[in-house]
Amino acid sequence: MSLPARLVLDPDGADRHTEHRVLNDGGSATRVDVLGVPAWAVSDPALLRRLLTSPDVSKDARAHWPEFADAVQTWPLALWVAVRNMFTAYGAEHRRLRRLVAPAFSSRRIAALAPYVRATVTALIDDLAALPPGQAVDVRERLAYPLPIAVIGHLMGVPEDRRNDFRAVVDGVFDTTLDAEAAAENAVRLYATMDRLIAAKRAAPGEDMISLLLATREEDGARLSDEELRDTLLLMISAGYETTVNVIDQAVFALLTVPGQLEEVRAGRVEWNDVLEETLRHEPAVKHLPLRYAVDDIPLPDGRTIARGEAILASYAAANRHPDWHGDDADVFDVNRTVKEHLAFGHGVHFCLGAPLARMEVTLVLQQLFDRFPGMELAVAPEDLKPVPSLISNGHQSLPVRLRPVA
After folding, report:
1. Quick one: residue 34, left, alpha or beta (phi over 0 = left, psi -120 to 50 = alpha)?
2. Max alpha carbon distance in the chain (Å)?
3. Nearest to 335 by CA among 264, 256, 250
4. Averaged confidence pLDDT in the chain
Protein backbone atom coordinates (compact mmCIF):
# COMPACT_ATOMS: atom_id res chain seq x y z
CA MET A 1 0.00 0.00 0.00
CA SER A 2 1.49 3.34 -1.05
CA LEU A 3 1.78 6.21 1.39
CA PRO A 4 -0.34 9.35 0.87
CA ALA A 5 1.22 12.09 -1.23
CA ARG A 6 3.24 14.67 0.67
CA LEU A 7 2.67 18.40 0.58
CA VAL A 8 5.86 20.01 -0.71
CA LEU A 9 6.55 23.06 1.45
CA ASP A 10 7.64 26.08 -0.56
CA PRO A 11 11.27 27.00 0.29
CA ASP A 12 10.48 30.61 -0.70
CA GLY A 13 7.44 30.85 1.56
CA ALA A 14 5.75 32.82 -1.21
CA ASP A 15 2.17 31.99 -0.22
CA ARG A 16 2.49 31.05 3.42
CA HIS A 17 -1.10 31.75 4.42
CA THR A 18 -2.52 29.40 1.82
CA GLU A 19 0.00 26.79 2.94
CA HIS A 20 -1.07 27.22 6.58
CA ARG A 21 -4.73 26.75 5.63
CA VAL A 22 -3.89 23.58 3.70
CA LEU A 23 -2.08 22.22 6.75
CA ASN A 24 -4.96 23.06 9.07
CA ASP A 25 -7.46 21.50 6.67
CA GLY A 26 -5.36 18.33 6.49
CA GLY A 27 -6.17 17.08 9.97
CA SER A 28 -4.05 16.84 13.09
CA ALA A 29 -0.85 16.25 11.11
CA THR A 30 0.10 16.39 7.44
CA ARG A 31 2.78 14.50 5.54
CA VAL A 32 5.12 17.11 4.06
CA ASP A 33 8.33 17.40 2.11
CA VAL A 34 10.86 19.77 3.73
CA LEU A 35 13.47 20.44 1.05
CA GLY A 36 13.49 16.74 0.18
CA VAL A 37 13.13 15.39 3.72
CA PRO A 38 9.81 13.69 4.60
CA ALA A 39 8.19 14.80 7.86
CA TRP A 40 4.89 15.16 9.66
CA ALA A 41 3.87 18.81 9.94
CA VAL A 42 1.82 19.26 13.09
CA SER A 43 -0.43 22.31 13.11
CA ASP A 44 -3.24 21.16 15.38
CA PRO A 45 -2.52 23.28 18.49
CA ALA A 46 -3.72 20.72 21.04
CA LEU A 47 -1.68 17.92 19.47
CA LEU A 48 1.35 20.15 18.94
CA ARG A 49 1.41 21.29 22.57
CA ARG A 50 1.10 17.68 23.70
CA LEU A 51 3.95 16.54 21.47
CA LEU A 52 6.17 19.44 22.54
CA THR A 53 5.96 18.22 26.13
CA SER A 54 6.02 14.48 25.45
CA PRO A 55 9.02 12.24 26.21
CA ASP A 56 8.04 10.36 23.06
CA VAL A 57 9.33 13.29 20.97
CA SER A 58 13.02 14.13 20.78
CA LYS A 59 15.14 16.88 19.21
CA ASP A 60 18.26 14.70 19.16
CA ALA A 61 18.66 13.69 15.51
CA ARG A 62 21.76 11.59 16.18
CA ALA A 63 19.91 9.39 18.63
CA HIS A 64 16.41 9.27 17.20
CA TRP A 65 16.43 10.00 13.44
CA PRO A 66 17.59 7.17 11.17
CA GLU A 67 18.01 9.62 8.27
CA PHE A 68 20.51 11.80 10.17
CA ALA A 69 23.72 10.48 8.57
CA ASP A 70 22.43 11.10 5.05
CA ALA A 71 20.76 14.40 5.88
CA VAL A 72 23.87 16.06 7.26
CA GLN A 73 25.64 15.32 3.99
CA THR A 74 23.02 16.53 1.55
CA TRP A 75 20.24 18.51 3.26
CA PRO A 76 20.40 22.33 3.01
CA LEU A 77 19.07 22.58 6.59
CA ALA A 78 21.69 20.21 8.00
CA LEU A 79 22.94 22.84 10.45
CA TRP A 80 19.52 22.92 12.12
CA VAL A 81 19.83 19.27 13.15
CA ALA A 82 23.60 18.82 13.45
CA VAL A 83 24.44 21.51 16.03
CA ARG A 84 25.23 20.39 19.58
CA ASN A 85 23.35 22.68 21.93
CA MET A 86 20.13 22.65 23.92
CA PHE A 87 18.14 23.23 20.69
CA THR A 88 18.98 19.67 19.55
CA ALA A 89 19.25 17.99 22.96
CA TYR A 90 16.87 15.53 24.60
CA GLY A 91 16.10 14.45 28.14
CA ALA A 92 18.91 14.64 30.69
CA GLU A 93 21.30 16.15 28.16
CA HIS A 94 18.89 18.98 27.46
CA ARG A 95 18.45 19.61 31.16
CA ARG A 96 22.23 19.76 31.63
CA LEU A 97 22.76 22.24 28.81
CA ARG A 98 19.83 24.42 29.81
CA ARG A 99 21.09 24.63 33.42
CA LEU A 100 24.47 25.80 32.14
CA VAL A 101 22.99 28.43 29.82
CA ALA A 102 20.05 29.70 31.89
CA PRO A 103 22.11 31.99 34.19
CA ALA A 104 23.07 34.06 31.15
CA PHE A 105 19.36 34.88 30.69
CA SER A 106 18.44 35.49 34.33
CA SER A 107 15.78 38.12 35.00
CA ARG A 108 18.44 40.27 36.65
CA ARG A 109 20.72 40.22 33.60
CA ILE A 110 17.84 40.93 31.22
CA ALA A 111 16.54 43.80 33.38
CA ALA A 112 20.04 45.28 33.45
CA LEU A 113 19.94 45.47 29.64
CA ALA A 114 16.89 47.75 29.58
CA PRO A 115 18.79 51.09 29.66
CA TYR A 116 21.06 49.94 26.82
CA VAL A 117 18.14 48.71 24.72
CA ARG A 118 16.17 51.91 25.30
CA ALA A 119 19.16 54.10 24.42
CA THR A 120 19.87 52.07 21.29
CA VAL A 121 16.27 52.36 20.11
CA THR A 122 16.34 56.13 20.72
CA ALA A 123 19.58 56.54 18.77
CA LEU A 124 18.26 54.54 15.81
CA ILE A 125 15.02 56.53 15.73
CA ASP A 126 16.97 59.79 16.03
CA ASP A 127 18.83 58.74 12.89
CA LEU A 128 15.50 58.16 11.14
CA ALA A 129 14.22 61.55 12.27
CA ALA A 130 17.25 63.22 10.66
CA LEU A 131 16.19 62.03 7.20
CA PRO A 132 14.31 64.42 4.89
CA PRO A 133 10.58 64.47 5.78
CA GLY A 134 8.48 62.23 3.58
CA GLN A 135 11.46 60.28 2.24
CA ALA A 136 10.80 56.55 1.87
CA VAL A 137 12.93 54.54 4.28
CA ASP A 138 13.19 50.82 4.85
CA VAL A 139 12.52 50.42 8.59
CA ARG A 140 13.39 46.73 8.46
CA GLU A 141 16.88 47.62 7.28
CA ARG A 142 17.34 50.83 9.27
CA LEU A 143 15.65 49.84 12.57
CA ALA A 144 14.54 46.22 12.85
CA TYR A 145 17.91 44.78 11.79
CA PRO A 146 20.41 46.95 13.68
CA LEU A 147 18.64 46.82 17.05
CA PRO A 148 18.91 43.07 17.81
CA ILE A 149 22.42 42.91 16.34
CA ALA A 150 23.47 45.75 18.64
CA VAL A 151 21.80 44.12 21.65
CA ILE A 152 23.27 40.68 21.00
CA GLY A 153 26.66 42.24 20.30
CA HIS A 154 26.49 44.14 23.58
CA LEU A 155 25.31 41.06 25.46
CA MET A 156 28.14 38.94 24.09
CA GLY A 157 30.83 41.56 24.08
CA VAL A 158 31.19 41.55 20.30
CA PRO A 159 33.17 44.53 18.97
CA GLU A 160 31.04 46.79 16.79
CA ASP A 161 33.30 46.28 13.78
CA ARG A 162 32.49 42.53 13.81
CA ARG A 163 28.71 42.72 14.09
CA ASN A 164 28.11 42.90 10.35
CA ASP A 165 29.97 39.57 10.02
CA PHE A 166 27.39 38.04 12.34
CA ARG A 167 24.50 39.42 10.36
CA ALA A 168 25.79 38.07 7.05
CA VAL A 169 26.33 34.51 8.23
CA VAL A 170 23.20 34.29 10.38
CA ASP A 171 21.09 35.48 7.44
CA GLY A 172 22.41 32.43 5.60
CA VAL A 173 21.19 30.08 8.34
CA PHE A 174 17.57 31.16 7.71
CA ASP A 175 17.81 31.26 3.90
CA THR A 176 16.15 28.02 2.79
CA THR A 177 16.79 28.80 -0.88
CA LEU A 178 20.50 27.94 -0.51
CA ASP A 179 21.57 24.58 -1.89
CA ALA A 180 23.50 22.12 0.27
CA GLU A 181 26.90 23.36 -0.94
CA ALA A 182 26.14 27.03 -0.33
CA ALA A 183 24.65 26.25 3.08
CA ALA A 184 27.76 24.26 4.04
CA GLU A 185 30.02 27.13 2.95
CA ASN A 186 27.98 29.54 5.05
CA ALA A 187 28.33 27.20 8.04
CA VAL A 188 32.12 27.21 7.65
CA ARG A 189 32.18 31.03 7.69
CA LEU A 190 29.81 31.05 10.64
CA TYR A 191 31.95 28.77 12.76
CA ALA A 192 35.12 30.64 11.87
CA THR A 193 33.47 33.81 13.18
CA MET A 194 32.44 32.03 16.38
CA ASP A 195 35.89 30.57 16.96
CA ARG A 196 37.58 33.96 16.64
CA LEU A 197 35.20 35.48 19.15
CA ILE A 198 35.58 32.64 21.66
CA ALA A 199 39.37 32.82 21.41
CA ALA A 200 39.29 36.54 22.10
CA LYS A 201 37.15 36.04 25.22
CA ARG A 202 39.40 33.25 26.50
CA ALA A 203 42.36 35.58 26.17
CA ALA A 204 40.61 38.56 27.76
CA PRO A 205 37.44 37.64 29.72
CA GLY A 206 34.92 40.36 30.46
CA GLU A 207 31.43 40.80 31.92
CA ASP A 208 29.74 39.54 28.77
CA MET A 209 27.71 36.39 28.18
CA ILE A 210 30.50 34.49 26.38
CA SER A 211 32.85 35.02 29.30
CA LEU A 212 30.10 33.87 31.66
CA LEU A 213 29.52 30.69 29.64
CA LEU A 214 33.24 29.99 29.53
CA ALA A 215 33.39 30.23 33.32
CA THR A 216 30.12 28.48 34.22
CA ARG A 217 30.38 25.03 35.74
CA GLU A 218 27.84 22.75 37.32
CA GLU A 219 28.34 21.47 40.84
CA ASP A 220 29.98 18.32 39.50
CA GLY A 221 32.46 20.40 37.52
CA ALA A 222 30.82 19.88 34.12
CA ARG A 223 30.93 22.77 31.67
CA LEU A 224 30.12 23.34 28.02
CA SER A 225 32.50 21.61 25.62
CA ASP A 226 34.09 23.75 22.92
CA GLU A 227 31.61 22.41 20.36
CA GLU A 228 28.66 22.98 22.69
CA LEU A 229 29.84 26.50 23.44
CA ARG A 230 30.06 27.67 19.86
CA ASP A 231 26.80 25.96 18.95
CA THR A 232 25.16 27.57 21.98
CA LEU A 233 26.38 30.96 20.78
CA LEU A 234 24.97 30.18 17.35
CA LEU A 235 21.62 29.36 18.95
CA MET A 236 21.59 32.61 20.93
CA ILE A 237 22.48 34.72 17.92
CA SER A 238 20.03 32.98 15.59
CA ALA A 239 17.18 32.99 18.11
CA GLY A 240 17.74 36.58 19.17
CA TYR A 241 18.42 38.19 15.84
CA GLU A 242 16.35 37.20 12.81
CA THR A 243 13.32 36.41 14.95
CA THR A 244 13.28 39.84 16.61
CA VAL A 245 13.72 41.52 13.22
CA ASN A 246 10.65 39.71 11.94
CA VAL A 247 8.45 40.57 14.93
CA ILE A 248 9.27 44.29 14.64
CA ASP A 249 8.64 44.10 10.89
CA GLN A 250 5.30 42.30 11.23
CA ALA A 251 4.03 44.50 14.08
CA VAL A 252 4.74 47.73 12.18
CA PHE A 253 3.20 46.28 9.03
CA ALA A 254 0.02 45.22 10.84
CA LEU A 255 -0.46 48.58 12.56
CA LEU A 256 -0.05 50.40 9.24
CA THR A 257 -2.39 48.16 7.26
CA VAL A 258 -5.15 46.87 9.54
CA PRO A 259 -7.70 49.65 10.08
CA GLY A 260 -8.45 50.75 13.62
CA GLN A 261 -5.70 48.82 15.40
CA LEU A 262 -3.31 51.70 16.04
CA GLU A 263 -6.20 53.84 17.25
CA GLU A 264 -6.96 51.23 19.93
CA VAL A 265 -3.48 51.74 21.35
CA ARG A 266 -3.58 55.53 21.14
CA ALA A 267 -6.95 55.63 22.84
CA GLY A 268 -5.56 53.59 25.73
CA ARG A 269 -7.95 50.70 25.23
CA VAL A 270 -5.04 48.28 24.74
CA GLU A 271 -1.34 48.32 25.61
CA TRP A 272 1.70 47.94 23.37
CA ASN A 273 2.10 44.53 24.93
CA ASP A 274 -1.27 43.55 23.41
CA VAL A 275 0.05 44.54 19.99
CA LEU A 276 3.16 42.47 20.56
CA GLU A 277 1.30 39.34 21.64
CA GLU A 278 -1.18 39.55 18.77
CA THR A 279 1.70 39.97 16.33
CA LEU A 280 3.40 36.89 17.78
CA ARG A 281 0.17 34.97 17.32
CA HIS A 282 -0.83 36.32 13.92
CA GLU A 283 2.59 36.40 12.22
CA PRO A 284 5.15 34.54 14.38
CA ALA A 285 8.79 35.09 13.50
CA VAL A 286 9.23 31.39 12.67
CA LYS A 287 6.70 29.60 10.48
CA HIS A 288 8.04 26.05 10.74
CA LEU A 289 10.80 24.86 13.06
CA PRO A 290 12.86 21.81 12.02
CA LEU A 291 12.94 19.14 13.42
CA ARG A 292 11.76 16.72 16.09
CA TYR A 293 11.61 12.90 15.99
CA ALA A 294 9.31 10.19 17.25
CA VAL A 295 11.07 8.16 19.98
CA ASP A 296 8.24 5.62 19.84
CA ASP A 297 5.19 5.18 17.64
CA ILE A 298 2.78 8.08 18.21
CA PRO A 299 -0.90 7.42 17.47
CA LEU A 300 -2.77 10.35 15.97
CA PRO A 301 -6.41 11.24 16.77
CA ASP A 302 -7.55 10.18 13.27
CA GLY A 303 -6.10 6.68 13.56
CA ARG A 304 -2.85 7.27 11.68
CA THR A 305 0.53 6.81 13.35
CA ILE A 306 3.75 8.77 13.36
CA ALA A 307 6.17 5.86 13.29
CA ARG A 308 9.23 5.64 15.50
CA GLY A 309 12.12 7.51 13.91
CA GLU A 310 9.97 9.69 11.65
CA ALA A 311 10.61 13.44 11.59
CA ILE A 312 8.14 15.96 12.99
CA LEU A 313 7.90 19.60 11.91
CA ALA A 314 6.42 22.07 14.40
CA SER A 315 4.25 24.32 12.22
CA TYR A 316 3.85 27.19 14.66
CA ALA A 317 2.34 29.75 12.29
CA ALA A 318 -0.42 27.42 11.15
CA ALA A 319 -1.15 26.36 14.73
CA ASN A 320 -1.41 29.98 15.85
CA ARG A 321 -4.10 30.55 13.20
CA HIS A 322 -5.97 27.31 13.79
CA PRO A 323 -9.74 27.91 14.10
CA ASP A 324 -9.99 25.32 16.89
CA TRP A 325 -7.83 27.62 19.00
CA HIS A 326 -8.73 31.15 17.90
CA GLY A 327 -12.07 30.76 16.16
CA ASP A 328 -13.26 31.54 12.67
CA ASP A 329 -11.48 34.92 12.74
CA ALA A 330 -8.08 33.39 13.52
CA ASP A 331 -6.66 34.95 10.32
CA VAL A 332 -7.63 38.43 11.50
CA PHE A 333 -5.16 40.70 13.32
CA ASP A 334 -7.07 41.95 16.38
CA VAL A 335 -5.30 43.63 19.31
CA ASN A 336 -8.49 43.26 21.35
CA ARG A 337 -8.43 39.48 21.05
CA THR A 338 -9.39 37.93 24.39
CA VAL A 339 -7.37 34.71 24.04
CA LYS A 340 -3.79 35.82 23.46
CA GLU A 341 -2.07 32.42 23.64
CA HIS A 342 0.38 31.42 20.92
CA LEU A 343 3.37 29.17 20.27
CA ALA A 344 5.71 31.81 18.85
CA PHE A 345 8.34 31.11 21.52
CA GLY A 346 7.79 27.36 21.52
CA HIS A 347 6.31 25.35 24.36
CA GLY A 348 7.48 23.06 27.11
CA VAL A 349 11.11 22.41 28.02
CA HIS A 350 12.36 24.07 24.83
CA PHE A 351 10.51 27.36 25.47
CA CYS A 352 12.78 30.21 24.37
CA LEU A 353 15.03 31.53 27.16
CA GLY A 354 15.34 34.85 25.34
CA ALA A 355 11.61 35.58 25.18
CA PRO A 356 11.72 38.34 27.85
CA LEU A 357 14.52 40.13 26.00
CA ALA A 358 12.72 39.91 22.66
CA ARG A 359 9.51 41.25 24.21
CA MET A 360 11.44 44.17 25.72
CA GLU A 361 13.10 45.09 22.41
CA VAL A 362 9.93 44.98 20.32
CA THR A 363 7.81 46.88 22.84
CA LEU A 364 10.36 49.69 23.16
CA VAL A 365 10.63 49.98 19.36
CA LEU A 366 6.87 50.23 18.87
CA GLN A 367 6.44 52.78 21.66
CA GLN A 368 9.13 55.12 20.38
CA LEU A 369 8.56 54.67 16.65
CA PHE A 370 4.84 55.48 16.68
CA ASP A 371 5.31 58.25 19.23
CA ARG A 372 7.92 60.01 17.08
CA PHE A 373 6.16 59.40 13.76
CA PRO A 374 2.39 59.35 14.37
CA GLY A 375 1.70 59.97 10.67
CA MET A 376 3.89 57.10 9.43
CA GLU A 377 2.51 55.20 6.45
CA LEU A 378 3.60 52.48 4.05
CA ALA A 379 5.47 53.83 1.03
CA VAL A 380 4.21 51.01 -1.23
CA ALA A 381 1.01 49.03 -1.60
CA PRO A 382 0.88 46.14 0.90
CA GLU A 383 0.59 43.61 -1.90
CA ASP A 384 3.88 44.83 -3.37
CA LEU A 385 5.88 43.69 -0.34
CA LYS A 386 7.74 40.42 -0.83
CA PRO A 387 8.25 37.78 1.88
CA VAL A 388 11.68 36.72 3.06
CA PRO A 389 12.58 33.68 0.90
CA SER A 390 12.36 31.03 3.59
CA LEU A 391 10.04 28.33 4.88
CA ILE A 392 11.36 29.11 8.37
CA SER A 393 11.70 32.88 8.70
CA ASN A 394 8.53 35.00 8.51
CA GLY A 395 9.08 38.59 7.49
CA HIS A 396 9.30 40.94 4.52
CA GLN A 397 12.38 41.49 2.39
CA SER A 398 11.94 45.19 3.03
CA LEU A 399 9.41 47.45 4.75
CA PRO A 400 9.52 50.91 3.15
CA VAL A 401 7.57 53.62 4.98
CA ARG A 402 7.24 57.37 4.93
CA LEU A 403 8.10 58.83 8.33
CA ARG A 404 5.72 61.68 9.04
CA PRO A 405 6.02 63.38 12.45
CA VAL A 406 2.43 64.65 12.31
CA ALA A 407 -0.64 62.50 11.83
Report:
1. beta
2. 66
3. 264
4. 91
